């Protein structure tokens, strides 16, 4: 039972392109928005406009890709349409000189990203047998984590030279990733061998309950994470009293820790079970972020970010494989859409909610208190989940998948 490392790393390049874009967006767009408004609620609202289409359209395009029968495959047509347009629009963002133009560019860009994101993610379970998906997801997220480190670390340095440079770098890398994916990832296009499956006579109530609480856990731990990622540059500026470029470097420490532990987290989840691994991860992030409510010194924050990145890897690497484990055989794209519906919903609601709370209280100092509360709720939801681990008979399933 060996993972196809070549295919997995190549697929990871797609995630590299995606993940290079969002850290740049989240780190520097709030700074641009402060040129037009100082209201945190409005900044949070504008920062989440780009996620509204993700909530609405990612489940749609994920489900559509399940039903697509194209000479390029199920998922690749959506990637070929969405990726190049997204890259072009992202490079335009720093040249917008009015709030309306900036918002419009972000909205259209997010729609084009929604076209291909769920199909891209669904490629992993398509080409990876069930027992190996945590390992594969670890490698793929390693590539995404590497992109985040590059974006935060070099993005801050490039931003000092010219605010447009980080955006151009992201766009160029995304186009390069598209070409490599198209050349080396070949989907099965022989749809004549497919047979229609009879619908299940009754749903597994236990799996449905686990799916609901797993997706709620996804929502709440991303709520805690998204608030920190969105507002940390402003938190650093007004609470820690440091330059936004240094805040970007601090976030790169968290991303670097995630990067280092991404692949080991896949192996840990495979050995000890995805559910238990995630529970440890959520508990760990909660205990790591709690001291940050009081700690304001940069060296101590750096150390806690290293520890937090490890626990965040335990969560992120194993959660998506749990969701698609519950999915029916021909529903991977649909369930991928569910996963991104809940994670993107948190990205829409959480920054707005935190911005509203901050405006009421008048300080960014409550950022980590808000995050800790979100992770505690996620831990409660996750403790109710009972399905999503690899079952004992997956050795037989693997043999069937390899022979099919």
Helix content: over 70%
Query: Structural class of the secondary elements?
Result: mainly alpha
Average pLDDT score: 85
Low-pLDDT runs = 195-202, 392-396, 398-404
What best-fitting shape do the alpha-carbon axes yield? globular
Major beta-sheet overview: none
CATH superfamily: MFS general substrate transporter like domains
Strand elements, count: 0
How many separate domains?
1
| Alpha plus pi helix count | 13
What is CATH's topology name? Growth Hormone, Chain: A
Question: How would you describe what is shown here?
Answer:
Helix 1 (5-33) runs parallel beside helix 5 (133-161), helix 2 runs parallel beside helix 4 and helix 9 packs antiparallel against helix 10 (298-326). The chain has helices spanning 5-33, 40-67, 76-92, 99-127, 133-161, 165-184, 205-240, 244-272, 274-289, 298-326, 332-361, 367-384, 394-403. The chain contains 13 helices and no strands. The protein is 79% helix and 0% strand. The protein has a single domain, classed as MFS general substrate transporter like domains (Growth Hormone, Chain: A, Up-down Bundle). With 404 residues, the chain is mostly helical. The longest helix is centred in the middle third of the chain and has 36 residues, at 205-240.
């Amino acid at each position: 039972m060996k993972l196809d490392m070549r295919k997995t790393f190549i697929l990871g390049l797609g995630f590299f392109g995606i993940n290079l874009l969002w850290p740049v967006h989240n780190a520097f767009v709030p700074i641009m928005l402060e040129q037009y408004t100082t209201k945190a609620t409005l900044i949070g609202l504008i920062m989440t406009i780009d996620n509204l289409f993700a909530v609405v359209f990612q489940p749609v395009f994920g489900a559509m890709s399940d039903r697509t029968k194209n000479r390029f495959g199920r998922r690749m047509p959506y990637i070929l349409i969405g990726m190049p347009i997204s890259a072009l629009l992202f490079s335009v963002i720093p040249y917008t000189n009015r709030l309306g133009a900036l918002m419009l560019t972000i909205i259209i860009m997010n729609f084009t990203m929604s076209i291909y994101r769920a199909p891209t993610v669904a490629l992993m379970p398509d080409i990876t047998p069930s027992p190996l998906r945590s390992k594969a997801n670890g490698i793929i997220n390693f590539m995404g984590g590497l992109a985040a480190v590059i974006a935060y670390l070099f993005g801050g340095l490039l931003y000092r030279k010219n605010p447009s440079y980080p955006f151009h770098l992201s766009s160029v890398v995304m186009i390069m990733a598209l070409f490599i994916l198209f050349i080396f990832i070949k989907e099965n296009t022989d749809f004549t061998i497919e047979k229609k499956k009879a619908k299940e006579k009754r749903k597994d109530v236990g799996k449905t309950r686990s799916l609901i609480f797993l997706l709620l856990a996804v929502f709440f731990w991303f709520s805690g994470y998204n608030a920190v990622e969105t507002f940390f540059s402003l938190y650093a500026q007004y609470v820690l009293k440091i330059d936004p470029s240094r805040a970007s470097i601090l976030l790169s420490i968290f991303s670097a820790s995630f990067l280092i532990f991404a692949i080991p987290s896949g192996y840990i989840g495979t050995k000890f079970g995805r559910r238990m691994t995630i529970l440890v991860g959520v508990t760990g992030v909660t205990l790591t972020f709690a001291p940050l409510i009081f700690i304001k010194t940069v060296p101590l924050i750096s150390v806690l970010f290293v520890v937090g990145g490890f626990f965040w890897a335990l969560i992120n690497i194993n959660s998506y494989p749990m969701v698609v484990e519950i999915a029916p055989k021909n529903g991977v794209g649909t369930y991928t859409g569910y996963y991104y519906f809940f994670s993107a919903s948190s990205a829409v609601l959480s920054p707005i909610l935190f911005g509203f709370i901050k405006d009421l209280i008048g300080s960014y100092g409550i950022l980590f208190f808000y995050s800790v509360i979100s992770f505690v709720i996620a831990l409660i939801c996750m403790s109710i989940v009972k399905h999503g681990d690899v079952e004992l008979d997956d050795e037989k399933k693997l043999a069937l998948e390899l022979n099919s």
